[in-house]
Structures are given as C-alpha cells and as structure tokens.
Amino acid sequence: MNYRKLGNTDLAISELSFGTWAIGGAWGKLNDTEALNALDRAMDEGVNFFDTADVYGDGHSEELLAKATKGKESTIHIATKFCRAGDIHDPENYSLKRVQEYCENSLRRLNREQIDLYQIHCPPFEVLKDGSVFNVLDNLKSQGKIRYYGVSVETVEEGMYCLENYDVSSLQVIFNIFRQKPLKELFSKAHEQGVGILARVPLASGLLTGKFKKDATFEADDHRHFNRDGQEFNVGETFAGLEFNKGVELSEQLDWIASGRGNMTRAALRWILEHNEITSVIPGFRNVKQVEDNLQALNVEGYSPKEMEKLSVFYRNEVQPYIRGAY
C-alpha cells in the first residue's frame, strides 16, 4: 500500500481507500457480516482511511465502522459528512447548534472522541457563498471535535470557489474516466494550495466494471433504480450523470483498458491513481471479494502517455456531450 499526504494536513492516507455508502444503504440488500469482514480485509491490506456520512443508512455505516475499527482509532482515519439529514436549503441547518448536533451524533455512532475529516455533504452553492458554515467548522475544530474539515462538491465551480475563499483541507469530487472535467483547472489549483482531493464515484456506479448489460435491473432500494435519472438527488451521483443505456454502450467501448490489467474495475481505478493530485480514490464495496478486486488496482500496469491521451479524447468526444446535470 502506498500512502499520500492529505493536502497540508498531517494525515497520510492509503491511496486506495473505501467509501461506505454501499454497506450503509441505498445499494440494495445489506449483509453486515460480509461488510465487517470486508472492512477487516481492507485494513489487513493497509487501508487506513474510510469515508462515510451520517445519512448512509441513517448512520448505519458509521456504526459498522465503529465496530470494525474498535481499538484502532489512532491508526484508522475516518471521514464523515453532514447536512443532508436536514433541509439543505435552510440556513438553520448550518447553524452552530445544528451542526454540533450532527457532529456529536456521528461521534456517538463512530464511538470516537474526534472526527479526522468532517465534510459538508454536497450543499447548495448559496450555502458555500454565505460562508457562515465554515465559521461553525472552525468552532468545532477549536473544541477538538474535528481534526480537519472539507467539502464534498458537485461541480468544479463550487470546488474552485472553496479553494479561493476558505481554508478547507480537502475537496471530494466525482472523478472517473467518464468525468474528467476537474482535470482542467481544479486539480492544479488544489495541489498548488495544498488541498487534498478525494475521488468518489470512481467506477460510475458500476458502469466502469464492464459488468452491466442494457437490460440490467436494480432493487427498489438501490439508488441506481430510484435515482437513475436524478429523481432524488444530483444525477451525477448515479452513473456519473449518464443515461444508463448510453453508459453501458460507452463502457463497452472501453473494454480495451482491461488488457494486461486483469479487468475493467482495476483498470478504471488505476487510471485515477495515475493523477498525482489525487490523495485517495474511494470506491464502494459490499463484500471481501470486491475489496480484494479493488485493491488489485495497486498492482496492475499503469497507462502510457498515448493511452492517457486516447482516454482524454474519448471523454471529450464521446462522453462529455451526454453527461446530465451540473458538474
């Protein structure tokens, strides 16, 4: 395992870490025993960072992390997020009283005294422009409840605004072969300012595993069913904003990346790790097999400059015109 420093913080985190949305809820049937076994396997392989949120299974993923990391609090770092358990457009949702409640509830579920990285969970742009929530986070930091804070953003514009106006330690962005826009200016600006980048939705909700066919169906409580076209939240969080059948078609055109790299999953994650501005890529998982497969991305062959350019052209010409929603 390789470790990368999270911006200007003193946290050195595994370059391939894991997000816990899928083991908390909204990805179909849950199996806590499998999830805990998978968390143990990840930590055995050197993973020391996990990303979660208070709304993943209404706190269930935080509770699973508490069980899995008991006794390892000083060596396993946890990032969680807040704001989406309330009305994200209500200014009161970002008040000291409310955010402190969110924070203390997460600390209780995590069974920790301090959150390593506390992130605003995809707030509306007007909340970022108002800026008062950052004063609240500074207050929580001074209280010792959080170590560092960051923002999970939906758009490059939001990320650039945070970099230009606030003292954030990290930005979490949607980034994968189908979503390359942050490369143009956001990554270089973040690197220049010592802000870490966490790459979420790295497999485009499974499209970049190459396993889906156009007739694929998903369980009713899976966001790939109920948010397929952005019915519940930002469409970019599901299939990277692509219409499902178009996404399958595009993924089939990418099958060449798996050659010499085992499979498309490993190849897609390896592509993200080729970018030095990325601190960590955080794929989801539900079982040990998925954890092991994702971790193999660390051992496969990298990309040549010619291959990188081919994927850049593919994104601009074949993918970008079909991405829906603000990004």
Strand order of the largest sheet: 3-4-5-6-7-8-9-10
* Overall outline: globular
Helix content: 25-40%
How many β strands by DSSP? Answer: 10
- Structural class call reads alpha/beta
Indicate the mean pLDDT: 95
How much is the radius of gyration in Å?
A: 18 Å
The biggest beta sheet, please?
A: 8 strands, parallel
Could you give the order of the helices and strands? EEEHHEHEHEHHEHEHEHHHEHH
Cα distance spanning the termini:
31 Å
Q: Specify the number of helices.
A: 13
Residue share in β-strands: 5-15%
Spans of at least 5 consecutive residues with low confidence: none
Please explain how this structure is put together:
The protein has 327 residues and is of the alpha/beta class. Helices cover 38% and strands 13% of the residues. It contains 13 helices and ten strands. The chain has helices at residues 21-24, 32-44, 60-68, 96-110, 125-130, 132-143, 156-165, 186-193, 223-226, 244-252, 264-273, 288-295, 305-319; strands spanning 3-5, 12-14, 18-19, 49-51, 77-82, 115-121, 146-152, 170-174, 196-200, 280-281. The strands form two sheets. The chain has an eight-stranded parallel beta sheet, covered by helices on one side. A two-stranded antiparallel ribbon has the order 1-2. Helix 4 (96-110) links the parallel strand 5 and strand 6. The chain is globular, with a radius of gyration of 18 Å.
Secondary-structure map with pairings?
Blueprint: E1 3-5, E2 12-14, E3 18-19, H1 21-24, H2 32-44, E4 49-51, H3 60-68, E5 77-82, H4 96-110, E6 115-121, H5 125-130, H6 132-143, E7 146-152, H7 156-165, E8 170-174, H8 186-193, E9 196-200, H9 223-226, H10 244-252, H11 264-273, E10 280-281, H12 288-295, H13 305-319
Parallel strand pairs: 3-4, 4-5, 5-6, 6-7, 7-8, 8-9, 9-10
Antiparallel strand pairs: 1-2
Helix pairs in contact: 2-3, 2-12, 7-8
